[in-house]
Structure formats: C-alpha cells, structure tokens
User: Fold this.
Amino acid sequence: MLNTITNSPYLILLSALILFITSGYETIHTLNDFTLSTHHGILVFSIIQIIKVIPEIMHGLQEIEDADEIMEKRLSN
Assistant:
C-alpha cells in the first residue's frame, strides 16, 4: 500500500511541481548574486522529475482513452 502511494506518478508530479515553484522563486530572487546554491540543484532535480513522470501520465491517459472507446463500442452494440 505504502509502495503504491510513494510510486504514484501524480504524487511525484505534485512534489516536483512544488519543488519547481519554490526553487524557481528563490532562483529568480537571487539572480544578481551569481553564485551556485542549493536551490539551483533543486530546480534542476525538479525539472528532471517532471520530465520523467510525463510519459507515465501520458500512458495512463492513453489507457483511459482506450477504455472509453471500448466502453462506447460495447454500449453502442
């Protein structure tokens, strides 16, 4: 049960978006410093996580669309 929750692509996407927003906010406010800091690494990590989870979500949406088509065919017959 816990493994299912922690490997959920939607949870990963949500956490990556939160990291992206918060680290992006911090990065924008420190543009004048020209130093490499932790929030830059978190920003890169969040972008990688978002890119990694997009195919999984697209695959799930495709399966939902396929299931809808099958249900429409069964209901029309």
The two ends are 38 Å apart (CA to CA). DSSP finds three helices and no strands in the chain. The mean pLDDT is 90.
